[in-house]
Amino acid sequence: QAQQSCEACHNLFGEYYCNICHLFDRDKKQYHCSECGICRIGPKEDFFHCSKCNLCLNLSLLGKHKCIENVSRQDCPICLEDIHTSRVGAHVLPCGHLLHRTCYEDMLKEGYRCPLCMHSALDMTRYWRELDDEVAQTPMPTEYQNMMVEILCNDCNARSTVQFHLLGMKCTNCESYNTAQDGKCRLTLE
């Protein structure tokens, strides 16, 4: 029978013992989440279980995260490994998708978008204002000055027609530059 200590000599097998998972470990303030079905690193007081996401999340996200049903049962889109039972903590993106925390940190070295839905993975407002300044200071070559393009915003999903610019095309709805050309270019007569 698995238990925390030896019946004969009473030596502890681990500071933490879960009699459901039969997990022995050093004390890392673990707790068993019956909804997740596994032990989690705590402390328990700092976490809540979101039944829609099917995941324990930090209390700082209570009422502030976008729920996606059973999101923790998906693999990390960066490393393609399981998130739910991983020893690496999960990072919840503003769009609601999950990545391993280490995969999120690596992703930010290469880009700023969720690999699944292309939404910005962090607040880009300051960078968009800097890009506004760069666009204003970078005149377009004559052949592009009257070119209009249809764009799709990856952050708000709005479609709009804007003036083409090599540095980026700004969404008229949310002012993000996280956009993609979504149609043909056309010249306007001015």
From TrEMBL:
<dbReference type="GO" id="GO:0008270">
    <property type="term" value="F:zinc ion binding"/>
</dbReference>
<dbReference type="InterPro" id="IPR001841">
    <property type="entry name" value="Znf_RING"/>
</dbReference>
<comment type="pathway">
    <text>Protein modification; protein ubiquitination.</text>
</comment>
<keyword id="KW-0808">Transferase</keyword>
<keyword id="KW-0539">Nucleus</keyword>
<keyword id="KW-0863">Zinc-finger</keyword>
<dbReference type="InterPro" id="IPR039512">
    <property type="entry name" value="RCHY1_zinc-ribbon"/>
</dbReference>
<keyword id="KW-0862">Zinc</keyword>
<dbReference type="GO" id="GO:0006511">
    <property type="term" value="P:ubiquitin-dependent protein catabolic process"/>
</dbReference>
<dbReference type="GO" id="GO:0016567">
    <property type="term" value="P:protein ubiquitination"/>
</dbReference>
<comment type="subunit">
    <text>Monomer and homodimer. Interacts with AR, MDM2, KAT5, PLAG1, PLAGL2, COPE, UBE2D2 and GORAB/NTKLBP1.</text>
</comment>
<dbReference type="Pfam" id="PF14599">
    <property type="entry name" value="zinc_ribbon_6"/>
</dbReference>
<dbReference type="InterPro" id="IPR037275">
    <property type="entry name" value="Znf_CTCHY_sf"/>
</dbReference>
<keyword id="KW-0963">Cytoplasm</keyword>
<dbReference type="GO" id="GO:0061630">
    <property type="term" value="F:ubiquitin protein ligase activity"/>
</dbReference>
<dbReference type="InterPro" id="IPR017921">
    <property type="entry name" value="Znf_CTCHY"/>
</dbReference>
<feature type="domain" description="CTCHY-type">
    <location>
        <begin position="13"/>
        <end position="75"/>
    </location>
</feature>
<protein>
    <recommendedName>
        <fullName>RING finger and CHY zinc finger domain-containing protein 1</fullName>
        <ecNumber>2.3.2.27</ecNumber>
    </recommendedName>
</protein>
<dbReference type="GO" id="GO:0005737">
    <property type="term" value="C:cytoplasm"/>
</dbReference>
<keyword id="KW-0833">Ubl conjugation pathway</keyword>
<keyword id="KW-0832">Ubl conjugation</keyword>
<feature type="domain" description="RING-type">
    <location>
        <begin position="76"/>
        <end position="117"/>
    </location>
</feature>
<keyword id="KW-0479">Metal-binding</keyword>
<dbReference type="GO" id="GO:0016607">
    <property type="term" value="C:nuclear speck"/>
</dbReference>
<dbReference type="InterPro" id="IPR013083">
    <property type="entry name" value="Znf_RING/FYVE/PHD"/>
</dbReference>
<dbReference type="Pfam" id="PF13639">
    <property type="entry name" value="zf-RING_2"/>
</dbReference>
<comment type="function">
    <text>E3 ubiquitin-protein ligase that mediates ubiquitination of target proteins, including p53/TP53, TP73, HDAC1 and CDKN1B. Mediates ubiquitination and degradation of p53/TP53; preferentially acts on tetrameric p53/TP53. Catalyzes monoubiquitinates the translesion DNA polymerase POLH. Involved in the ribosome-associated quality control (RQC) pathway, which mediates the extraction of incompletely synthesized nascent chains from stalled ribosomes: RCHY1 acts downstream of NEMF and recognizes CAT tails associated with stalled nascent chains, leading to their ubiquitination and degradation.</text>
</comment>
